[in-house]
Write a structure and sequence with these properties.
10 helices, 5-stranded parallel β-sheet, Rossmann fold, globular, 38% helix
């Protein structure tokens, strides 16, 4: 299906901001940095049917950085997996919309939270598809800080060995972790060369450019797992949140929410 990805990105940002503010929750900066990636995936690239979430031929999407769940919840609601009214329950007691992504929601394949688990699971899915000679693909979004986890490198080594070119990994490279920069915590560079040495097909792009994202996501990798290094901005779309580590845990006040929505162009 094809949905206007720019409109999807805008509405996803608006809903994500409202959800985090209402719940007084965390991780809005981490969510905003992946919105454009999600918008292109759900708007232009992935094969899915929101009226039949478990359809066997669907592409599988895994959010390995499970703390950025509000962006995925918002996108799923926007494309019809569930009623947008349910977003208002995010973070409430007994809500299915948990503070880390939950498979209790239609469209969510796997619950994640502890970092380094999503990619190994996604590799297993890709292997299953390859062994069965199915055509569906597996897409995994990871954080850059998550690349400190050894389980991800083991998974990439396994994917390369088994020539899983139906696996597409997208690293949200916003250069900030929970408390500091990537470079000050555990530097990843030279990231692309490291990935290539593990047998991956790599593409380095602007992670907010929808045309470049679509082109990279659709590019064939011919016998290699594909890893897209998506250079992003934490808090993208809200000037006072951008490139600020504070918004990993901070939630916007009512006045900050109003300013953020004004910047994004919420007309409601």
């Amino acid at each position: 299906m094809s949905i206007n990805s720019l409109k999807l990105a805008k509405e996803t940002r608006i809903s994500a901001l409202r959800m985090v503010s209402k719940a007084k929750a965390s991780h809005i900066g981490s969510a905003l940095s992946i919105v454009d990636i999600l918008a292109v995936l759900y708007g232009e690239v992935m094969n899915y049917d929101s009226s039949e979430p478990d359809k066997y031929s669907r592409d599988r999407f895994i959010l390995s950085k499970g703390h950025a769940c509000v962006a995925v919840y918002a996108a799923l609601a926007e494309v019809g997996f569930f009623d947008k009214q349910e977003l208002q329950t995010y973070g409430n007691d007994f809500s299915n919309l948990m503070n880390h992504i939950s498979h209790k929601i239609d469209g969510v394949e796997f619950s994640t939270g502890a970092l380094g688990h999503g990619l190994p699971f996604g590799v297993g899915k890709a292997l299953a598809s390859k062994l069965k000679k199915d055509s569906w693909k597996t897409f995994v979004v990871l954080s850059d800080g998550e690349m400190d986890e050894g389980s991800n490198w083991e998974a990439l080594m396994f994917a390369s060995h088994h020539k899983l070119d139906n696996l597409i990994c997208i690293i949200d490279y916003n250069k900030l972790q929970s408390l500091d920069s990537i470079n000050n915590t555990l530097a990843l560079e030279p990231l692309e060369q490291k990935l290539q040495s593990f047998g991956c097909h790599t593409i380095d792009i602007d992670g907010h450019n929808h045309d470049k994202l679509e082109e990279a996501l659709l590019e064939r990798s011919y016998g290699k797992p594909k890893v897209i290094i998506a250079n992003t901005v934490k808090g993208k779309g809200v000037s006072f949140m951008e490139n600020s580590v504070a918004w990993h845990y901070k939630s916007p006040t009512d006045s900050e929410l109003a300013l953020a929505l004004l910047e994004i162009g919420d007309e409601k």
